[in-house]
């Protein structure tokens, strides 16, 4: 434990701002990925192991499409991942809706193996690094005397906009209402004349889009490699558990919590960096077994 | 009374299954346009299963005809779009959605493409709805939930309404209001198949009655005839 | 009546018979066909098989899905490695202590985990395992940190009566692993067929009803957790011997995922199923990697086909086939207690 | 002295009084029915007696011991067995294994490592005997989940019988059966009651059965005990008629 370093950091604007932005970009990217995982789980009851691979594909697609134009790359890559998600759902996953949870995990784990190797085939075995897009090669924005890179601000803005948009979608549109109702009681939703299978596919596409978007945003600031989906997958699971299964608001809280724990925890407890997030999850599960905002949905 | 020949809804020789367990045996019944028909029977006799057979929520063998079209085996949402409104026994309001959101989910035109019911009209018939609009479904009382689920189903403009034990657990005053409501709906052109354990309530509102026991239909007749059959009422309904 | 009871005990004995036959074949195979590939991959299959079998005491027999089983595997590996590298404790005693250490760790962690159900249980086991991982990579003086326990594990020759066996020889190590695997399998078999095993299966089917029978479902879950931890510790210790060290990835969560998939592939209703699953997964991976570095693509495709078409583990599939054939056989007794009660009346 | 003495038992879920100040005494050897409309609190009352739901107020004395705050396990081992409204068995296990598990749990044999690890021929024999009581011995080797609903209900009762209870609580033992099956099942239960010298309290909706087989009937309505007595007295009780017919509702 290094509380001295922590005290030193919180007394310096520079350090606080830098850790704060780091917490926010980690948390918001994680939120994008985890909210998709949570939606898919909440509505369809599917724990999608391959969700991290969709994030990876988002990053790679963005890397490849960047040559065209940053805006196009961002939108097209995320949409591309959504289409891949649709294919996965229609061709494979819909056959295992009624299968035991573990077989869903096995199937989606197989996707990880396949997609990682597909990535190797297309983009090679090594790390690729895409660098900050030209549009963001500009002087940092200063908060007080602390510089924040322009691209970080972009991630934060997009993350918050998507979070708000998702919240509006879920609470203010009929599609959102149907999604929330289907999470509670899909049978009753069907009895009211709604095609629940189509809604499920829609949710899977939305979840894939969010994972892809997370990858797209992360691509310039993280190294891109086959298997990069693994660690964000585990963290997304943690977010979903901490936030409460199926709760998007909970995912937001959980993701930011993890962002902060990672950013400031690594200063205060450098020796425990790898374990902090898991300690947080253990603490939450032991004290609030249904998650911070969990509504008590039983699996 | 009947238009277009046959009855509006007809079950002919329906068997229903939960997995391997058979819950209905050769059930036949009809609902004609403009009728209120009640299905009487004790707990576990097969009333809810009969309704689920119509709504497409249970595996069936036999024919379920809606306006002469066989709908047995159709997915639940297709049956609903053909004009069957199902109000389940335990109401199944969406607890995390507000009343307005609950209503909104069910919005669709009727089987003939017409829109007879709107939120404004429903709020006129169910004056209780308007002040509840923003309340969460899970926070309502049993009686309020019952009215909201009926209103919700009407938003889909059904011409057949399946009401599974609507009076269960409701206070006497609410049951009375419910009786008036059911009659009003019939007058507005909705044909109603009702199931009940509350025999008094059922006999007051219904035109005809069936008695189901252990998954078999044991009796069929008009309400007036049934009133004159104390033996039957005692044997199957413990009345 | 007698017919089906007989069938039952056949099925029961069959697992042991098949297990021993397979073990005998496996024992003789390298003697007549001394292939490096076999001596290389064989111990890996056996070790991972014991690991998967240990997990199945929880997963298949008690209905608990642990995402953190690597903690006990790693505990066994590090305990053995540290004892053999840094102390004078002998091989046999180190193996016993490795098992005991893993079981003890499982007791402590399990105490907290068994209070939760379903996915929450799974995630808490994962959390604890990752905390163990953090400890392992940070306790550098003891564990070697990121590097692991390097420098090999000194294994003295073992004296067996008049013979002295050098375990460094791949063949001797293969046979040692095989005999310990057989011993672990037989012990586990005795356990799952015991009264305790019976109640574990009852917990798996319907934990609440077990409580109404006056037994503690939580206590039974914990005992399964500890037993599974002990067997995992044995597997870990053997793995440490095999690779000559213990490494952080033994404790990492991907190591927890492997036995789950082995159990799913091999079947979760027998003890041999996980061993078969390990053979399939480890064997396939070893074979495929000889031909292509894109083994994930091939293995993934096989797994996708497996999940979509077979939908149950290999041995479960076989057992189900056999049972449905037996059930269709004539001479099965009539059932229906209610009907019989009617006649009796 | 009564076998089971319930004094002022209450249970509130929030503002809802599920069971309200219920007092009664079950004599040893009684074969009695507990009746009442849906939601009257019958299952909650059972849950209170077996210690699965904490009590808001009141005491429960069983066989001379105060079991008000005893754990469900203790209550089972003191001699209260229970079968459920919806067959509550171990579906993937064989019928014989189901009952054998109950025998093991009853003997607490799983807690002694030396006994636990051994196979248990004697226990299996006892389990088979219990199955014969309910005529399910022919199904011993079938998975419990493959039985018909009625047979699963019998198996559920057999699980309780394997615990050798002094008091057996049966929650709608005949729910979901044909009328003839119901009568046969109740006749079987009554014979077991006589042969095994138990005390039985059962919940039942079929009034024909209740009034034919029960020695004593207790009526629960809105969580309160509104009547108690022999069938003849209950059948003419105005309160009971109201509870069932819903007098005053329209």
What would the principal axes of the Cα set say about the shape of chain B? globular
Unreliable residue runs of chain B: 1-5
Q: Averaging pLDDT over every residue of chain B, what do you get?
A: 87
Total number of domains of chain B: 1
Number of helical elements of chain B: 10
The N- and C-terminal alpha carbons of chain C lie at a distance of 23 Å
> Which shape of chain C, going by the Cα principal axes?
globular
- Fill in the CATH topology of chain C: ABC transporter involved in vitamin B12 uptake, BtuC
Look at the helices and sheets of chain B and give the structural class: alpha/beta
How much of the sequence lies in strands of chain B comes to 25-35%
Mean pLDDT of chain C: 86
Number of strands of chain C: 2
Supply the number of helical segments of chain C.
14
Give the fraction of residues assigned to helices of chain B.
25-40%
Q: Which sheet architecture does the biggest sheet of chain B show?
A: 6 strands, mixed
Layout: helices, strands, pairs:
The complex is a heterotetramer of chains A (299), B (239), C (345) and D (250).
Chain A: H1 3-10, H2 13-44, H3 51-65, H4 70-91, H5 101-123, E1 141-143, E2 146-148, H6 150-172, H7 174-184, H8 186-191, H9 196-218, H10 229-243, H11 248-268, H12 273-287
Antiparallel strand pairs in A: 1-2
Helix pairs in contact in A: 2-6, 2-9, 2-10, 2-11, 3-4, 3-5, 3-9, 3-10, 4-9, 6-7, 7-9, 10-11, 10-12, 11-12
Chain B: E1 9-18, E2 21-31, E3 36-40, H1 47-55, E4 59-66, E5 69-70, H2 76-81, E6 84-87, H3 99-105, H4 119-125, H5 129-132, H6 142-154, E7 160-164, H7 172-187, E8 191-196, H8 199-205, E9 208-213, E10 216-222, H9 223-227, H10 230-237
Chain D: E1 4-13, E2 16-26, E3 31-35, H1 42-49, E4 57-62, E5 65-66, H2 72-78, E6 80-83, H3 95-107, H4 113-116, H5 121-133, H6 149-161, E7 167-171, H7 179-196, E8 199-203, H8 207-213, E9 216-221, E10 224-229, H9 231-235, H10 238-245
Parallel strand pairs in D: 3-8, 3-9, 6-7, 7-8
Antiparallel strand pairs in D: 1-2, 1-4, 4-5, 9-10
Helix pairs in contact in D: 3-5, 3-6
What key phrases describe this protein's structure?
heterotetramer, B: 239 residues, alpha/beta, Rossmann fold, six-stranded mixed beta sheet, four-stranded antiparallel beta sheet, 10 helices, 10 strands, globular, disordered N terminus, C: 345 residues, mainly alpha, ABC transporter involved in vitamin B12 uptake, BtuC, two-stranded antiparallel sheet, 14 helices, 2 strands
Characterize the structure shown.
- The complex is a heterotetramer of chains A (299), B (239), C (345) and D (250).
- Chain A is an all-alpha fold.
- Chain A has helices at residues 3-10, 13-44, 51-65, 70-91, 101-123, 150-172, 174-184, 186-191, 196-218, 229-243, 248-268, 273-287, and strands spanning 141-143, 146-148.
- Chain A has one domain (3-287): ABC transporter involved in vitamin B12 uptake, BtuC (Orthogonal Bundle).
- Helix content of chain A is 72%, strand content 2%.
- Chain A is globular, with a radius of gyration of 19 Å.
- Residues 295-299 of chain A have low confidence and may be disordered.
- Chain B has a 6-stranded mixed sheet with strand order 6-7-8-3-9-10, with helices on both faces. A 4-stranded antiparallel sheet of chain B has the order 2-1-4-5, with helices on one face.
- The two termini of chain B are 32 Å apart.
- Chain B contains 10 helices and 10 strands.
- Chain B is α/β, with parallel strands linked by helices.
- Chain B has helices at 47-55, 76-81, 99-105, 119-125, 129-132, 142-154, 172-187, 199-205, 223-227, 230-237; strands spanning 9-18, 21-31, 36-40, 59-66, 69-70, 84-87, 160-164, 191-196, 208-213, 216-222.
- By secondary structure, chain C is mainly alpha-helical.
- Chain C has a single domain (3-334), classed as Orthogonal Bundle (ABC transporter involved in vitamin B12 uptake, BtuC), CATH 1.10.3470.
- Chain C has a two-stranded antiparallel sheet.
- In chain C, strand 1 and strand 2 (163-165) form a beta hairpin.
- In chain C, helix 2 runs parallel beside helix 7 (170-193), helix 2 packs across helix 11 (272-291) and helix 10 (253-266) crosses helix 11 (272-291).
- With 250 residues, chain D is α/β, with parallel strands linked by helices.
- Chain D has helices at 42-49, 72-78, 95-107, 113-116, 121-133, 149-161, 179-196, 207-213, 231-235, 238-245, and strands at residues 4-13, 16-26, 31-35, 57-62, 65-66, 80-83, 167-171, 199-203, 216-221, 224-229.
- The radius of gyration of chain D is 18 Å and the shape is globular.
- Chains in contact: A-B, A-C, B-D, C-D.
């Amino acid at each position: 434990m290094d509380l001295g370093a922590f005290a030193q950091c919180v007394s310096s604007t520079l350090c606080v701002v830098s850790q704060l932005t780091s917490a926010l970009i980690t948390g918001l990217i994680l939120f994008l990925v985890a909210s998709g995982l949570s939606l898919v789980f909440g509505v369809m009851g599917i724990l999608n192991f391959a969700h991290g691979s969709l994030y990876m594909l988002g990053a790679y697609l963005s890397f490849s499409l960047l040559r065209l134009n940053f805006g196009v790359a961002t939108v097209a890559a995320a949409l591309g991942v959504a289409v891949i998600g649709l294919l996965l759902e229609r061709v494979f996953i819909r056959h295992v809706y009624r299968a035991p949870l573990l077989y869903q995990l096995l199937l989606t784990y197989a996707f990880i193996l396949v997609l990682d190797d597909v990535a190797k085939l297309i983009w090679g075995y090594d790390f690729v690094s895409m660098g900050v897009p030209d549009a963001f090669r500009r002087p940092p924005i200063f908060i007080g005397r602390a510089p924040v890179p322009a691209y970080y601000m972009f991630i934060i803005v997009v993350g918050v906009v998507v979070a708000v948009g998702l919240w509006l979608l879920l609470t203010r549109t009929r599609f959102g209402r149907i999604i929330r109702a289907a999470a509670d009681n899909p049978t009753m939703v069907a009895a009211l004349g709604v095609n629940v299978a189509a809604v499920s596919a829609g949710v899977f596409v939305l979840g894939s889009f969010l994972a892809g978007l997370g990858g797209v945003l992360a691509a310039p600031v993280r190294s891109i490699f086959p298997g990069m989906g693994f660690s964000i997958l585990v963290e997304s699971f943690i977010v979903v558990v901490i936030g409460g299964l199926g709760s998007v608001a909970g995912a937001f809280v959980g993701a930011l919590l993890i962002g902060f724990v990672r950013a400031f925890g690594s200063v205060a407890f450098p020796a425990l960096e790898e374990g902090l997030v898991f300690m947080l999850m253990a603490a939450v599960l032991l004290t609030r077994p249904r998650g911070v905002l969990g509504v008590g949905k039983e699996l | 009374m009947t238009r277009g020949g046959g009855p509006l809804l007809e079950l002919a020789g329906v068997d229903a299954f939960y997995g391997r367990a058979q819950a209905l045996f050769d059930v036949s019944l009809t609902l004609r346009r403009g009728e209120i028909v009640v299905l009487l029977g004790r707990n576990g006799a097969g009333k809810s299963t009969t309704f689920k057979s119509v709504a497409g929520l249970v595996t069936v063998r036999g024919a379920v005809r809606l306006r002469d079209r066989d709908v047995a085996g159709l997915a639940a949402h297709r049956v609903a779009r053909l004009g069957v409104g199902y109000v389940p026994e335990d109401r199944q309001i969406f607890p995390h959605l507000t009343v307005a959101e609950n209503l909104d989910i069910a919005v669709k035109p009727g089987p003939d493409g017409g829109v007879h019911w709107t939120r404004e009209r429903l709020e006129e018939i169910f004056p209780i709805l308007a002040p509840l609009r923003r309340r969460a479904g899970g926070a309502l009382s049993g009686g309020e939930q019952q009215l909201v689920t009926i209103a919700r189903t009407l938003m889909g403009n059904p011409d057949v309404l399946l009401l599974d034990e609507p009076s269960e657990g409701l206070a006497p005053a609410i049951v009375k209001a419910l009786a008036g409501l059911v009659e009003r709906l019939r007058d507005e052109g909705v044909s109603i198949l009702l199931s009940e354990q509350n025999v008094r309530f059922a006999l007051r509102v219904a035109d005809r009655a069936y008695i189901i026991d252990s998954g078999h239909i044991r009796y069929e007749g008009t309400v007036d005839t049934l009133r004159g059959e104390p033996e039957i009422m005692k044997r199957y309904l413990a009345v | 009546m007698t017919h089906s009871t007989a069938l039952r005990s056949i099925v029961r004995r069959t697992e042991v018979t098949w297990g021993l036959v397979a073990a005998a074949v496996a024992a003789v195979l390298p003697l007549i066909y001394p292939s490096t590939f076999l001596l290389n991959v064989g111990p890996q299959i056996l070790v991972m098989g014991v690991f998967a079998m240990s997990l199945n005491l929880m997963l298949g027999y008690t209905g608990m899905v642990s995402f953190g089983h690597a903690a006990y595997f790693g505990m066994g590996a590090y305990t053995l490695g540290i004892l053999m590298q840094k102390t004078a404790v002998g091989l046999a005693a180190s193996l016993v202590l490795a098992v005991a250490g893993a079981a003890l760790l499982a007791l402590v962690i399990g105490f907290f985990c068994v209070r939760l159900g379903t996915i929450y249980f799974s995630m808490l086991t994962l959390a604890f395992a990752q905390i163990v991982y953090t400890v392992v990579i940070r306790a550098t003086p003891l564990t070697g940190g990121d590097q692991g326990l390097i420098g090999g594990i000194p294994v003295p020759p073992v004296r067996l009566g008049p013979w002295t066996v050098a375990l460094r020889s791949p063949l001797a190590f293969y046979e040692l692993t095989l005999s310990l695997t057989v011993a672990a399998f037989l012990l586990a078999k005795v356990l799952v067929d015991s009264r305790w095993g019976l109640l574990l299966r009852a917990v798996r089917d319907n934990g609440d009803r077990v409580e109404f029978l006056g037994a503690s479902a939580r206590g039974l879950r914990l005992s399964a957790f500890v037993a599974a931890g002990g067997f995992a510790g044995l597997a870990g210790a053997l793995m440490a011997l095999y690779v000559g060290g213990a490494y952080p990835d033994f404790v990492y969560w991907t190591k927890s995922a492997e036995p789950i998939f082995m159990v799913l592939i091999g079947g979760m209703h027998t003890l041999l199923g996980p061993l078969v699953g390990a053979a399939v997964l480890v064997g396939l991976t070893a074979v495929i990697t000889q031909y292509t570095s894109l083994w994930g693509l091939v293995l993934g495709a096989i797994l996708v086909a497996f999940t979509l078409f077979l939908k149950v583990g290999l041995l479960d599939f076989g057992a189900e086939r056999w049972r449905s054939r037996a059930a269709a056989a004539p001479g099965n007794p009539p059932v229906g207690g209610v009907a019989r009660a009617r006649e009796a009346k | 002295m009564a076998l089971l003495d319930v004094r002022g038992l209450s249970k509130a879920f929030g503002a809802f009084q599920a069971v309200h100040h219920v007092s009664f005494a079950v004599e040893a050897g009684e074969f009695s029915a507990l009746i009442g409309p849906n939601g009257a609190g019958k299952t909650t009352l059972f849950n209170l007696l077996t210690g699965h739901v904490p009590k808001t107020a009141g005491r429960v004395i069983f066989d001379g011991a105060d079991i008000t705050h005893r754990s469900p396990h203790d209550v089972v081992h003191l001699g209260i067995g229970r079968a459920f409204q919806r067959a509550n068995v171990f579906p993937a296990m064989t019928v014989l294994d189901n009952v054998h598990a109950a025998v093991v749990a009853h003997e607490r044999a799983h807690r002694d490592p030396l006994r636990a690890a051994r196979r248990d021929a004697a226990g299996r024999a006892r389990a088979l005997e219990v199955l014969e009581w309910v005529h399910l011995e022919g199904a011993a080797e079938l998975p419990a989940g493959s039985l018909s609903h009625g047979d699963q209900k019998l198996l559920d009762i057999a699980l309780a019988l394997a615990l050798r209870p002094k008091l057996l609580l049966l929650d709608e033992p005949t729910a979901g059966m044909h009328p003839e099956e119901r009568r046969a099942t109740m006749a079987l239960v009554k014979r077991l009651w006589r042969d095994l010298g138990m005390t039985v309290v059962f919940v039942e909706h079929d009034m024909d059965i209740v009034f034919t087989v029960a020695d004593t009937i207790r009526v629960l309505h809105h969580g309160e005990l509104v009547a108690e007595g022999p069938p003849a007295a209950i059948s003419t009780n105005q309160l009971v008629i109201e509870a069932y017919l819903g007098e005053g509702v329209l």
